[in-house]
C-alpha cells in the first residue's frame, strides 16, 4: 500500500511539474501552409524512418483466422477486406503495434464465458504462431526496450492487447496467464456490459454503475502484473472508477473526443484531462462512425442484414460457406461503400486533445480490421497522410515522435516499474 501511495505521489508530482498540459502554446508550432506536398512527404518519411511507430489497436487476429490468410503477403482493403499485413506496414512506415485479442460480448452465462476464455487463449496462441512463422520479419514485444530493439533489427514489432474483459470470464487469475503469454493491455469492456464493468454503448444501460467488485479486482491485478488498463469502450462512470482505482496511468487504446463529435464512445474533456493528469495516453481512433453522422442507406442496411442472417447467426460455417461469406462481404462493400470520415477530422480530434491534454498524452490507432479507416487512410499502408496533415498544421518532429509511440511506451514502462516496485517490496 505504501509503495502504491508513494508511487502515485511521485507520478502526480512529476506529471504536474513536468507535463505541459497547455502544450499547444509552443511558439515553434507554426503551420507549414507554404510547404509543397513533396516537402511535407519528405519530412513525414523522415519522421517515420527515425522513430518508433506504433498503432495501438489492430484487429488483424480476426483476419488471421481466415483459412489461407498469409500476413507476409500484401493484400488490399478493397479486394480482400483486410487492412493489416507486414508489407503494408512497411509501406505505411509503421513498425508495428498491438494485435488485439478480441471477443464479441456474448451471454453472461457459464457456457458463454467459457467459450470466450477458450477463444481468447486460442487467439493469443494464433498471434504467437503467426509471428513465429514470420520470425525473419517480425517479433513479439512485451516491453518498450523490446520494441526499440526489434525496430533496430529492421523487424516489425508485435505487442498483444485484449479487447473485452469477457476473455477472463469471472476468473481474475487468468490475467496472469495472459500476461505470461505476452498480453500487455487489458481492455475492460466492449460494446456491451460484462461481468467487470459497464460499456459506453450497451442498449440496456448500466448494469453495475461503473466497475463491479470483480472489475475492481481485475484493475488491481493488472496493476500488480504490470499490464496497462485500457478504458476504450468503457462507460464514463467505468472510466472514472478505473482512473480513481488504478495505481498506474491508463490508456485509451482507440478513442476520440466527445467535444469534436458527441458519440458515447468518445471521451469528454474532463476524462481527457484526468487521463493526462494521471500520466496516461489517449490513442486517437480512426473509426469513421465516431467522427461523423453516417447518412442512412436503406439498401446497404438491408443487404448487410441479409448477409448477417446468412453467415453470422451463430452456427459453425463449413469451409465453402466461409469462403462464400467473405466473397459476398467484399462484393457488398464494393456495391455499397461505407461512408467515411477524413484525415482532416482525425487531426481535428488530435488538435483538441493537444489543447486539453498536451502533447505527452496522445497517440494514434487505426482500429484497422475492426471497422476503422477514413478517406485516404484506409489501411496500415496509408498512415503517411495522417503524419502529413499533422506536419501541415505545425506539429514538430518531437511531437510526432511522442504521438507515434514514445507516449504509449512511457505508460507501458510506468506499469512495468510499478509492478517491479511491488514485487521488490513484498
Ligand atoms: Zn473497439
Automatic annotation (TrEMBL):
Gene Ontology biological process: proteolysis
Keywords for the protein's UniProt record, in alphabetical order: Signal
Transmembrane segments: none
InterPro entries per record: Metal_Hydrolase, Pept_M19
Highest taxon in the source lineage: Bacteria
One Gene Ontology term of the molecular function aspect: metallodipeptidase activity
CDD domains found in the cross-reference section: rDP_like
UniProt KW Cell inner membrane keyword: no
Keyword Phosphoprotein: no
Record's protein name: Dipeptidase
Organism: Pelagicoccus mobilis
Origin organism lineage: Bacteria, Pseudomonadati, Verrucomicrobiota, Opitutia, Puniceicoccales
Amino acid at each position: 500500500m505504501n509503495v502504491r501511495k508513494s508511487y502515485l505521489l511521485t507520478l502526480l508530482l512529476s506529471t504536474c511539474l513536468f507535463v505541459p498540459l497547455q502544450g499547444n502554446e509552443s511558439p515553434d508550432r507554426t503551420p507549414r501552409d507554404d510547404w509543397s506536398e513533396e516537402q511535407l512527404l519528405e519530412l513525414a518519411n523522415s519522421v517515420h524512418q527515425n522513430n518508433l511507430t506504433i498503432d495501438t489497436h489492430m484487429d488483424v487476429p480476426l483476419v488471421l483466422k481466415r483459412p489461407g490468410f498469409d500476413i507476409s503477403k500484401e493484400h488490399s482493403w478493397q479486394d480482400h477486406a483486410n487492412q493489416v499485413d507486414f508489407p503494408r506496414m512497411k509501406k505505411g512506415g509503421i513498425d508495428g503495434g498491438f494485435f488485439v485479442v478480441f471477443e464479441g460480448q456474448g451471454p453472461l452465462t457459464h457456457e458463454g464465458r467459457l467459450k470466450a476464455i477458450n477463444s481468447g487463449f486460442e487467439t493469443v496462441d494464433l498471434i504467437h504462431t503467426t509471428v513465429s512463422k514470420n520470425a525473419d520479419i517480425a517479433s513479439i514485444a512485451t516491453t518498450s526496450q523490446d520494441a526499440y530493439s526489434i525496430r533496430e533489427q529492421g523487424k516489425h514489432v508485435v505487442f498483444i492487447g485484449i479487447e473485452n474483459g469477457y476473455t477472463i470470464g469471472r476468473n481474475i487469475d487468468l490475467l496472469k496467464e495472459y500476461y505470461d503469454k505476452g498480453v500487455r493491455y487489458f481492455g475492460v469492456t466492449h460494446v456491451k456490459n460484462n461481468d467487470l464493468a459497464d460499456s459506453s454503448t450497451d442498449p440496456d444501460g448500466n448494469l453495475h454503475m461503473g466497475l463491479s467488485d470483480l472489475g475492481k479486482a481485475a484493475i488491481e491485478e493488472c496493476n500488480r502484473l504490470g499490464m496497462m488498463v485500457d478504458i476504450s469502450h468503457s462507460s464514463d462512470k467505468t472510466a472514472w472508477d478505473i482512473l480513481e482505482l488504478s495505481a498506474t496511468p491508463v490508456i485509451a487504446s482507440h478513442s476520440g473526443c466527445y467535444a469534436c463529435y458527441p458519440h458515447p464512445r468518445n471521451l469528454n474533456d474532463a476524462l481527457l484531462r484526468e487521463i493526462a493528469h494521471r500520466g496516461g495516453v489517449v490513442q486517437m481512433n480512426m473509426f469513421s462512425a465516431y467522427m461523423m453522422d453516417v447518412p442512412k442507406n436503406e439498401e446497404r442496411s438491408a443487404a448487410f442484414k441479409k448477409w448477417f442472417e446468412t453467415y453470422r447467426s451463430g452456427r459453425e460455417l463449413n469451409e465453402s460457406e466461409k469462403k462464400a461469406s467473405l466473397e459476398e462481404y467484399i462484393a457488398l462493400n464494393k456495391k455499397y461503400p461505407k461512408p467515411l470520415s477524413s484525415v482532416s477530422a482525425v487531426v481535428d480530434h488530435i488538435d483538441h486533445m493537444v489543447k486539453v491534454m498536451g502533447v505527452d498524452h496522445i497517440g494514434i490507432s487505426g482500429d484497422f480490421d475492426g471497422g476503422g479507416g477514413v478517406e485516404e487512410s484506409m489501411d496500415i499502408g496509408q498512415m503517411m497522410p495522417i503524419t502529413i496533415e499533422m506536419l501541415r498544421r505545425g506539429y514538430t518532429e518531437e511531437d510526432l515522435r511522442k504521438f507515434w509511440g514514445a507516449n504509449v511506451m512511457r505508460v507501458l514502462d510506468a506499469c512495468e516499474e510499478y509492478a517491479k516496485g511491488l514485487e521488490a517490496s513484498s
